[in-house]
């Protein structure tokens, strides 16, 4: 018997920096989540690469990454991804969504996404975990965790039967659970400070943020470290059955 098998549904193009330093965003996720004996594959869904129906059966779980695209958009690949996620839900496959992945999961399940009324949220933010979530309480992690954020969209309305399990001062739905098989996280537990610094430069060069805001955000990085080990424990526990 082989070990468990997981797939990353890559919703972003790799930057040259992330490719050089981490082997692409797939490499970033593997560094955080992979354990000995497991098999990890990647499907570049933003480029139209999707698993075939007979391949889906092979996987124990899926991770959906962040993206420069809007989860409320209707690009061909986004519509195809929505259909895939509905299928995975019907099969009770474990799915972990990060940032765009969190938002697209909510949309696929019947929730609503859109621009965050407060604008961009970039940097290390403190989020509050729900004390009513017995699964999280069982992990013995702090009630507040710091996480790197980089988004201007949010989940505005939860899918029916979903549960908010974390929030912040800026974003009301930082995390949600849907049944025992789906979890979304608005922040980026996989990011390091250098990835965020590089991403701020990319956003500035694409005129998505202004220079004064970029410099302000860069100056704050390093003042607070994200709780990477706690996030790693939480994500692995969920994806692999312990949460």
The chain-level structural class is alpha/beta
Mean pLDDT across all amino acids: 91
N-C termini distance: 24 Å
Form type: globular
Order of helices and strands: EHHEHEHEHEEHEEEEEHHH
Assembly state (oligomeric)? single chain
Q: How would you characterize the largest beta sheet?
A: 9 strands, mixed
**Biggest sheet, strands in spatial order?**
2-1-3-4-11-10-9-6-7
User: Helix count, per DSSP?
Assistant: 9
Strands, count: 11
Low-confidence stretches: none
Strand percent estimate: 15-25%
Q: What is the radius of gyration?
A: 17 Å
Helix amount: 25-40%
What does this structure look like?
- The chain has 243 residues and is α/β, with parallel strands linked by helices.
- Helices cover 35% and strands 24% of the residues.
- It contains 9 helices and 11 strands.
- The chain has helices spanning 16-22, 24-33, 53-56, 76-90, 100-108, 134-137, 193-205, 211-220, 228-239, and strands at residues 5-9, 39-43, 61-64, 94-98, 112-115, 121-129, 144-151, 153-157, 162-167, 175-178, 182-185.
- The strands form 2 sheets. Strands 2-1-3-4-11-10-9-6-7 form a 9-stranded mixed β-sheet, with helices on both faces.
- α4 links the parallel β3 (61-64) and β4 (94-98).
- α7 runs antiparallel to α8 (211-220).
- The chain is globular, with a radius of gyration of 17 Å.
- The mean pLDDT is 91.
């Amino acid at each position: 018997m082989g070990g468990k098998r997981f797939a990353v549904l890559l919703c972003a193009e790799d930057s040259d920096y992330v490719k050089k330093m981490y082997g692409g965003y797939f490499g970033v996720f593997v560094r955080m989540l992979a354990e000995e004996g497991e098999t990890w594959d990647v499907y570049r869904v933003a480029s139209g690469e999707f698993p075939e129906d007979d391949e889906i059966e092979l996987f124990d779980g899926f991770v959906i990454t962040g993206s420069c695209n809007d989860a409320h958009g209707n690009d061909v690949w986004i519509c195809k991804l929505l259909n895939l996620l509905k299928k995975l839900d019907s099969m009770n496959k474990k799915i972990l969504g990060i940032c765009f992945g969190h938002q697209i999961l909510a949309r696929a399940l019947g929730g609503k996404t859109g621009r965050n009324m407060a604008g961009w949220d970039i940097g290390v933010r403190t989020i509050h975990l729900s004390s009513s979530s017995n699964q999280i309480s069982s992990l013995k992690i702090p009630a507040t965790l710091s996480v790197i954020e980089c988004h201007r969209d949010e989940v505005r309305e939860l899918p029916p039967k979903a549960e908010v399990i974390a929030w912040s001062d800026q974003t009301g739905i930082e995390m949600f659970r849907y049944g025992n098989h789906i979890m979304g996280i608005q922040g980026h537990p996989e990011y390091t400070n250098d990835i965020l610094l590089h991403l701020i430069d990319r956003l500035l060069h694409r005129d998505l943020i202004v220079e004064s805001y970029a410099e302000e955000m860069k100056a704050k990085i390093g003042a607070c470290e994200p709780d990477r080990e706690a996030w790693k424990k939480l994500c692995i526990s969920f994806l692999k059955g312990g949460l």
